[in-house]
Amino acid sequence: MQALIDKIKSQIQLSPKAEAYLFSIGKVKEYPKGTILIRQGQAVNKTFYVTGGCLRSFCVDKNGKEHTLQFAIENWWISDYIAIHNHELATLTVACITDSKLIEFDAKALNHILTLFPEYEPFQRYILERHLVSLHKRILNQLQLTATERYDLFLKQYPNIEQSTRNYYIASYLGITQESLSRIRAKKA
Question: Any transmembrane segments, and where (predicted)?
């Protein structure tokens, strides 16, 4: 938990009361590989900060095909923000693809920090902007880059993920088949 507090303090001045509040609402937890934290179709009230391991968020379409939206590695946040902010059931499933260490927050309590401690707002804005930029880049990459170029960017963004995740997850993140991913890897080798 202290690492997250230090990260926040590197961005903003955080009062001792705000720091104590974060400690009071954050729960450090460890989950084994395969744990489902949020299941598509269920109520969502948690958000997670990753201190170790790797998670992914994905949806399953009406044909049963999985589409990976995000991988979350150390220092990343993950949840189903559509469900939280629109007060809907989960549109995504969030699962641990490795043994993972997380800080779990009640989403309402974390959001309430902005009311209690306005000094936290610039950090929250920074996180939201970073998330928005990441999603916009991902959309533009899907529209403009070849599968090979998207794979190269993926390896730069997640340099050690290939050893700990299934090819199917990577292919679904890139928007290609597993066979196409195998061909790309073969050409690179």
Answer: none
